[in-house]
Design goal:
single chain; 427 residues; mainly alpha; three-stranded antiparallel β-sheet; 6 strands; 6% strand; globular; binds carboxymethyl coenzyme *A
Length: 427
């Protein structure tokens, strides 16, 4: 706790001194917990100024455009690490030793299969169901297969529950794609790594040998790592709020998946591709940007609640985008050229500069995913697969706090005052 205090003068002779807690990085916070005793709540819709928890996992420096997992800059991790090593780091607080890494990867690999009943569950979905509707349903349904995970206070049960979900997400995500197109489900292959296995389950067929392109697998792994956690965003906060009731961890994560679907959050990369398709041609970019400035619509893949400078993930994705398109011989892809023209126009326009609107990670990730062959409707599901790690790390941090309380915000009520029921014939 800091020596500083914030004094609130209620104007009626009463004053309260609120303690200030020091952050190791970023803004300090005022402890508002006792404010209610003085007859006031703090009012902060959409949590613009509220720290809803204490966390040691991820830190975003929005002004500097930096992102750290457990103190490590994400650029360094993207260069040297992998999604599963990042997962270990986010979950355990430290980078693993070689043995810890090997053991963790092995444990994840051994849990990639799904209960056979899940295959029947898929058959209940319409073929044209949005993959996010299926992912939300299947992750929620997993709670029915692992009732023991409800006893997550036991560290052993907690550990295996976390490993199970991280392991099964690629399998069930790939199944959503296969189901939509009527393709047979492919079983995971233990000889493949996490990213390779997902690409195999997406694109292999039982009739042919399938070799995963290592450049594509590396790029895909990087996409997963860059999306693994992002502090207290909407879906993570949803997981924390759901989890605060003591619910089953897979149910809490299913709530996070549902939240992620929205176009202001995880749905943005799908929305970017929709926008590019709508624009259609480089010659229409200026007209489209004019519409954004007239506030007819937003430029998808631009702007961020926290980053008011470049999104560090976007810079890495941009580079990765070039690498992948090069390998696939798609550098002249009209959609990519259109995206680059849009980026260039927006970055040199006063509206975007003055509003501090820079491309975010989703501006580029959709282009890479589409180039790899992943359909637009699957983009958010891939994001959910990656973010599962962060959701579980944040959930674990919360439920292992000594004094966990159910999340229960207050409100500013502006509805009718108390009144008596009026019988229908008198209304
Ligand atoms: N295009 C045009 N104008 C924008 C945009 C945009 N993408 N984003 C914000 N603005 C303007 C907005 O109109 C407002 O202008 P003014 O002050 O003149 O009224 C100002 O910027 C502030 O907007 P805001 O809605 O208060 O900003 P926010 O921080 O609440 O919004 C955001 C953050 C991500 C929802 C928003 O930037 C947005 O809608 N972006 C497009 C969707 C998108 O790409 N989302 C992915 C975010 S990154 C993935 C993730 O981490 O989940």
């Amino acid at each position: 706790m800091s020596k500083k205090q914030v004094i609130i003068d209620f104007g009626d002779g009463r004053k309260v001194e609120l303690p200030v807690f020091d952050a190791t990085l970023g803004q300090n916070v005022v402890d508002m917990r006792n404010l209610g005793k003085y007859g006031y709540w703090s009012y902060d819709p959409a949590f613009l100024s509220t720290a809803a928890c204490e966390s040691k996992i991820t830190f975003i420096d929005g002004d500097a455009g930096q992102l750290f997992y457990r103190g490590y800059p994400v650029e360094q991790l993207a260069e040297h690490s992998t999604h599963l090593e990042g997962a270990y780091l986010l979950l355990n607080g430290e980078l693993p030793t070689q043995k810890e890494k090997d053991d963790f990867e092995r444990e994840i690999t051994l849990h990639t299969m799904l209960n056979d009943q899940i295959y029947s569950l898929f058959k209940g979905f319409r073929r044209d169901a949005h993959p996010m509707a299926m992912v939300t349903g299947v992750v929620g349904a997993l709670a029915a297969f692992y009732p023991d995970s409800f006893y997550f206070k036991d560290p052993k049960i907690r550990k295996i529950s976390i490993q199970r979900l991280i392991a099964k997400m690629p399998t069930l995500t790939a199944m959503c794609y296969r189901y939509t197109y009527g393709l047979p489900f492919m079983f995971p292959q233990n000889k493949l790594n996490y990213a390779e296995n997902f690409l195999y389950m997406m694109f292999a067929t039982p009739c042919e040998d399938y070799v995963v392109n290592p450049v594509i697998a590396k790029a895909f792994d990087r996409i997963l790592l860059l999306h693994a956690d992002h502090e207290q965003n909407a879906s993570t906060s949803t997981v924390r709020i759901a989890g605060s009731s003591g619910t089953h961890p897979f149910s809490a994560v299913a709530a996070g998946v549902a939240c992620l679907w929205g176009p202001s959050h995880g749905g943005a990369n799908e929305a970017v591709l929709k926008m590019l398709t709508e624009i259609g041609d480089e010659s229409k970019v200026d007209e489209y940007v004019a519409g954004v400035k007239d506030k007819k619509y937003r430029l998808m893949g631009f702007g961020h609640r926290v980053y008011k400078n470049t999104d560090p993930r976007a810079s890495i994705m941009r580079k990765t985008c070039y690498e992948v398109l090069e390998v696939l011989g798609k550098k002249d892809d009209p959609l990519f050229k259109l995206a680059m023209k849009l980026e260039q126009v927006a970055l040199s326009d006063d509206y975007f500069i003055s509003h501090k609107l820079y491309p975010n990670v989703d501006f580029y990730s959709g282009i890479i995913l589409r180039a790899i062959g992943i359909p637009d409707s699957m983009f958010t599901a891939v994001f959910a697969l990656a973010r599962t790690v962060g959701w579980l790390a944040q959930w674990q941090e919360m439920i292992t706090e000594p004094d966990i309380k159910i999340s229960r915000p207050r409100q500013l009520y502006t509805g009718s005052v108390a009144r008596n029921y009026v019988p229908i014939e008198q209304r």
